[in-house]
């Protein structure tokens, strides 16, 4: 099911929880595990600020991952393995080297890990952006333009909408990727969330419509993990949970889990709150052939109680943990149903072709 685990106590379910948390804040400094990159430390800094607002002392703790070295040498993710950027962080958390780990949720394996509990802060815009010479739009790039991206999901969709483009591998941090625009590349495709978080969204020529280039499942969402037996750290991060965002991410990742595809597969998903009262979650997902000639796309919808998920205003009521798990299970089931629809339409063949 979801990667969420019910603790023994919660400040909302337990009247003494808030006071207990206040007492504990003076006794412990929480270490927030993060990679060294600007994006990773910025994301973790946002989480640290939220923890500080709850009255907890905290500091960032840098964890070196094999993925950092692979970026410098431009080794493709497919060669170094899925989850290379997250497993070292998780191991550090499990070993008590840090107390909190901050991930891009899209990079986590979809299989539940009972060592940890997860919350999801409010998600930022999940769309892709194009950074290009002279701020040209995707449709206006010259024939044969060189576009950088290594993600099979992006490559396959780019080939579908612009088969004339020359698509080249791209690794590195945000600055090094954008730095190639105007040198050996005409454009690059990046996640809007990354540019937004590091304050460089003005570099984007356009944000791409999800119906043109659908983003990765859970793109734009962070996953904040603590150890399953660490109630103090759980009390510190739980107030940062944004349930509408978590439900969206859970549904999208359920598609990936049902397809048994990793984060590097040509699988995309996008969800949005729809309906007159914004309580209906519309989940779209697609599986794409690497040559751009085949695609399977479908949609499912699921409705949630208004008091918990209305995305147009702050949450009126936060559910107790049992109810939270039930709502996440409903989102996961909807995404799983969508994944099954895609499987029945032949998605497994497209996923296998990309391996």
From TrEMBL:
Which N-terminal residues, if any, form the signal peptide? none
Required cofactor names = dipyrromethane
Q: Where is the composition biased (Basic and acidic residues)?
A: 1-11
- Write the Enzyme Commission number(s) for this entry: 2.5.1.61
Pfam families, alphabetized: Porphobil_deam, Porphobil_deamC
Gene Ontology MF annotations: hydroxymethylbilane synthase activity
Task: State the source organism's domain of life.
Answer: Bacteria
Porphobilinogen deaminase N-terminal domain segment(s):
31-233
Q: Where is this region: Disordered?
A: 1-22
Q: What class of enzyme is it?
A: transferase
- Coiled-coil regions listed in the entry: none
Q: Which Gene3D superfamilies match?
A: Periplasmic binding protein-like II, Porphobilinogen deaminase, C-terminal domain
User: What keywords were assigned to this record?
Assistant: Porphyrin biosynthesis, Transferase
KW Transport (keyword) present: no
Porphobilinogen deaminase C-terminal domain sequence ranges: 249-304
Q: Which GO terms describe its biological process?
A: heme biosynthetic process
The Swiss-Prot or TrEMBL record describes its family as follows: Belongs to the HMBS family.
Q: What does this protein do?
A: Tetrapolymerization of the monopyrrole PBG into the hydroxymethylbilane pre-uroporphyrinogen in several discrete steps.
Quaternary structure, per UniProt, is: Monomer.
In its UniProt entry, what is this protein called?
Answer: Hydroxymethylbilane synthase
> What species is this protein from?
Corynebacterium resistens (strain DSM 45100 / JCM 12819 / GTC 2026 / SICGH 158)
